[in-house]
Amino acid sequence: MSTRALVTLFAVPLLLLSGCSREKSDWRSAQAADTSESYEQFIGSHPDSSLVTTARERLRQLAEEKDWRSAAETDTADAYRQFLSQYPSGKWAKEAQLRVDNFSSGAGSSGAGSSGAGSSNAPSGVASADNAAAAAPSGAPGGAATAISPAGAGFGVQLGAFSSAERANAEWNKIKSHAAGTLDGLEPRVVVGESAGKTIYRLQAEVRDEAQARAVCTGLTLDNTPCVPVLPPKSP
User: Fold this and answer.
1) Which of 63, 64, 88, 116 is the most exposed place for a label (fewest CB within 10 A)?
2) DSSP assignment string, the chain
3) Nearest in space to 226 (alpha carbons), one of 194, 208, 203
4) What are the pLDDT digits (tens) for 208-231?
5) CA quadruple 156, 157, 163, 165: dihedral positive or negative?
6) pLDDT of residue 104
7) Average pLDDT taken over every residue of the chain
């Protein structure tokens, strides 16, 4: 075998290995950045990669997240309907429909969100308890919370907002039966608030601290159940 043939024999595998190594490196960089630009750059550099399908799926997810944040910031029935028309089976479709239903019933925004978007008055998807009136006692008949005010709620999770306390309690029973174990040991509280001049009833459950609130919401959002951590108002 000639020297040229030997060089070719060894060079080709090395080039393939180098290309594969670069592809993996570029993919790790794209994942680390986790932006639309990084995934588009990866697709442009490696159009034949087996990871292109994964990159396109992540691009779709990022676009949905961006549109959901925009809808939540606008916080109108039309904004949520537009989101639903774009993502009828999306991650936040159930929550968007919940908010549309609450607007239709005259209750205003649902105020409950996944980890990506929550109350428009709270940062990073966290609802503030100073927007609400106080929690109900856990000993209400039939395990249902009684809606009372005034404020003073501590840490909690918010699961939606409704036009009546009865609807809030019905939703609690539905979620508790669906999300097996996630709400064990927690009691519902219905917090009276106001949105667009209308009284709304926020369904919440009290937890011991922020860590538990986020853990509960993580478990619920995995089941596509809207949930946002509620933090007590900061001291002045």
Assistant:
1) 88
2) --HHHHHHHHHHHHHHHHHHHHHHHHHHHHHHH-SHHHHHHHHHH-TT-TTHHHHHHHHHHHHHHHHHHHHHHH-SHHHHHHHHHH-TTSTTHHHHHHHHHHHHTT--------TT---TTSGGG-EEGGGSPPPPPTT-GGGPPPPB-S----SEEEEEEESSHHHHHHHHHHHHHHSTTTTTT--EEEEEEEETTEEEEEEEEE-SSHHHHHHHHHHHHHTT---EEEEPPPP-
3) 203
4) 898 998 899 888 887 778 888 887
5) negative
6) 63
7) 74
Largest pairwise CA distance in the chain: 91
Residue 65 identity: E
Torsion of CA 116, 118, 124, 126, to 10 degrees: -130
